[in-house]
Design brief:
The protein contains 16 helices and 11 strands. The chain has 499 residues and is of the alpha/beta class. It folds into 2 domains: 207 residues, no CATH class; 151 residues, Glycogen Phosphorylase B (Rossmann fold). The strands form 2 sheets. Strands 2-1-3-4-5-6 form a 6-stranded parallel sheet, with helices on one face. Bound molecules: 2-acetamido-2-deoxy-beta-D-glucopyranose (7 copies). One 2-acetamido-2-deoxy-beta-D-glucopyranose binds next to loops.
């Protein structure tokens, strides 16, 4: 062996040794880090503790969720923004990543580098949002002051509340910039749209549909239609919209009839919906859109007052309107099959006013609550059942469920195909066949997940608002992948042309 080759092989040996050492060091570092930060706070914490729980193990890691995203169509990557990858997160103290438990107070500020989702919100005039609640600010004031939770504008009650998701999300964004409001740091409003992961459109579309669809006097278009037209004009004119053709915009259209005129024009955006029942698949689909829970009408019962198996005399509970069209014929079929059973409560009529509290009592005294497809695949009833810790029986083949990528509904709901449910005796045999221990397991799971379906102001860790932001954050990672893939050759070519 020549001296030269000996020297180079020795050099090679050192190199290998050093790199192996570095490799081991970095994996140790990563492992330590993962204890506190790779799987972020929120629901995923539980997975590590108990793999038999109702939560799915997510198949992604937080780097993917939180890596920076430049919505601008140009090829500039914003390098100044902190990368919230494992490495950086590990430098953040455990205390600052930790979520306050509900009711507990948090002292630190929520800053954009810690939030999972940076949201730019258009300053639409109040007629699109709080103006619809009758709120009037000072001249040129766009948003109400939300620093005092007891003085925020209130959303109309009754059935309107079911679709009030627009209100809770907008309030939450406003409060993310308000000092002294204690909330989880999942989403934060940023004032510069090129620093945002998603562009939020603060239009109260469900309220606009519910309250302003009627024509008054000589009007040719309703306020609801007028607002939708204005919104389309506005959005199409924005630089933010033009960058990606609206793909990074988030529009809330929870009432199945909201945004009826504008939905196809704005169909490239992401929608927050109750279900896909009234949408063609190219406008709304699970690939881009988010299913949000209804805001339930009955009050959430506490775990302490939740009646166990033998304190719930009613086997199955259903109260709802009767429908003859679409999937709803099944309600009638089931009514004839079940109406003579003593331990079954099955009545028609929508719940309103006093009916709501009696429905709440009924559900809280029932082992199972039937959730039967009506004129839309989803309904508020499922979330009323969950709030009452009454095991939902879902008879709705087309239903879409909120947060199903992290929640395994089969752990706390029964699913029955419509074609089976209408067979004589099928449903009764099924429900009577579920004995106390199996029912109790589902009930325990219900108690554990019920808070994911509660809307609060200020929002609370893992409540519905927090869960929706997390769901948005998971969804946009696929947008980033397609954006970055699209840049592959485009970017390389543009470099050549510039030289
Ligand atoms: C995991 O969950 C199961 C069922 O929910 C429960 O019986 C068990 O005690 C839990 N284990 C831990 C470590 O929490
Ligand atoms: C981390 O926490 C320690 C105490 O536990 C504190 O002294 C230190 O300043 C914290 N570091 C940061 C970056 O907050
Ligand atoms: C992490 O948190 C625990 C308590 O939750 C605390 O005792 C410990 O000092 C913290 N460690 C650091 C590095 O801040
Ligand atoms: C309201 O805004 C308009 C246009 O930006 C401006 O001319 C006017 O001075 C503002 N009024 C007040 C009271 O700030
Ligand atoms: C909002 O109201 C609080 C008092 O409730 C006040 O301290 C604060 O300055 C107000 N903020 C704005 C922007 O007016
Ligand atoms: C917004 O952010 C971009 C990229 O970080 C920056 O170039 C631009 O100057 C910012 N605009 C404003 C108004 O701060
Ligand atoms: C019901 O419980 C029994 C024992 O407790 C168990 O063997 C069985 O698998 C359970 N059935 C279902 C459908 O969970």
């Amino acid at each position: 062996m020549s001296e030269k080759s000996m020297l180079s092989s020795r050099l090679f040996f050192y190199l290998v040794t050093i790199s192996m050492f570095l490799l081991i060091l970095s994996s140790v570092f990563l492992l330590e880090c993962s204890n506190t930060s790779i799987i972020p706070r929120s629901v995923f914490e539980r997975i590590l503790v108990n793999s038999t729980s109702v939560y799915f193990k997510p198949s992604f890691r937080s780097e993917q969720i939180t890596s920076p995203f430049t919505p601008s169509g140009d090829t500039q990557i914003n390098v100044e923004r902190p990368v919230r990858s494992g490495k950086l997160a590990c430098q953040v103290n455990n205390s600052s990543r930790k979520m306050p438990s509900p009711g507990k107070h948090r002292n630190m500020e929520c800053v954009p580098s810690q939030a999972h989702l940076r949201v730019f919100m258009y300053d639409l005039p109040p007629e699109f949002h709080f103006g619809l609640l009758g709120w009037k600010g000072r001249v040129n004031q766009t948003w109400p002051n939300v620093s005092n939770p007891s003085r925020i504008p209130t959303y109309p009650g009754g059935l309107n509340l079911q679709h009030s998701i627009e209100y809770w999300l907008t309030l939450d964004l406003l409060s993310s910039n308000t000092p002294n409001v204690l909330r989880p740091c999942s989403a934060i409003r940023v004032k510069n749209s090129s620093q945002a992961d998603i562009i939020f459109v603060p239009f109260f579309s469900s309220l606009s549909y519910n309250k302003h669809s009627k024509l008054h006097g000589k009007e040719k278009v309703s306020v609801n239609q007028m607002l939708q037209r204005k919104l389309v004009q506005f959005l199409w004119g924005q630089e933010e919209w033009k960058r990606l053709g609206g793909k990074d915009h988030l529009i809330i259209a929870h009432h199945p009839n909201s945004m009826l005129d504008a939905r196809s024009k704005l169909g490239s955006a992401r929608f927050v919906l109750a279900d896909f029942g009234r949408y063609p698949v190219e406008i709304a689909n699970l690939g881009k859109d988010i299913i949000a829970p209804y805001r339930h009408l009955v009050r959430t019962i506490s775990n302490g007052e939740s009646a166990p198996f033998d304190k719930r005399p009613i086997l199955a509970y259903f109260q709802g309107a009767i429908y003859r069209k679409d999937g709803g014929f099944i309600r009638q079929e089931l009514y004839y099959l079940l109406k003579n059973e003593k331990d079954i409560h099955f009545t028609f009529g929508s719940i309103q006013g006093k009916g709501i509290s009696s429905a709440g009592q009924g559900m809280a005294s029932s082992k199972f609550c039937l959730n039967i497809a009506g004129d839309t695949p989803s309904s508020n009833r499922l979330f009323d059942a969950i709030a009452s810790h009454c095991v939902p029986v879902i008879i709705s083949d087309q239903i879409e469920l909120p947060f199903e990528d992290v929640l395994d509904y089969s752990q706390f709901c029964l699913f029955v195909r419509a074609s089976d449910a209408v067979k004589k005796g099928y449903l009764l045999d099924l429900l009577r066949g579920i004995k106390q221990d199996n029912w109790t397991r589902m009930w325990e799971n219900l108690k554990e997940i019920a808070h994911h379906f509660d809307y609060h102001y200020p929002s609370q860790p893992n409540d519905a608002v927090d869960m929706i932001w997390e769901a948005v954050s998971r969804k946009i990672s696929s947008l980033r992948i397609s954006l970055h893939r699209g840049n592959r050759y485009k970017r390389s070519l543009s470099l050549v042309q510039n030289n």
